[in-house]
Amino acid sequence: MTLTLSPTQILAGLAVLFALFTVWRFGARKARRAAETARAGARVVSLAGRVLFTGSAFVGVQWPVITHPGNPTLLVVLGAPDLVAAYVLTRALTVTSLDTTRRGGGRR
Fold this sequence. Notes:
This protein has two helices and no strands. By secondary structure, the chain is mainly α. The longest helix has 61 residues, at 7-67. It is rod-shaped, with a radius of gyration of 29 Å. The model has no long low-confidence stretch (mean pLDDT 75).
């Protein structure tokens, strides 16, 4: 059984293979970007949750100071700086970058 292909058929086959490869690469890049976007969004939500938790912990520690004088405005006066401090501490103690190495050493 002999397979005989003309040069036109060979070029058409190579063109189809190249098109499939290009579509596959485009899909892989698009999926990688979507995954990175999802990770970035999750980092922001996670950071907000940690800031609120740390701020709540600070307010919880200061709660005895607030309850003894009987002044409810102390909650706002002490709570707002606590949220700022919680944000600063959380950002300082959280790693927010994803360091990956590129394979192949190609240009970016």
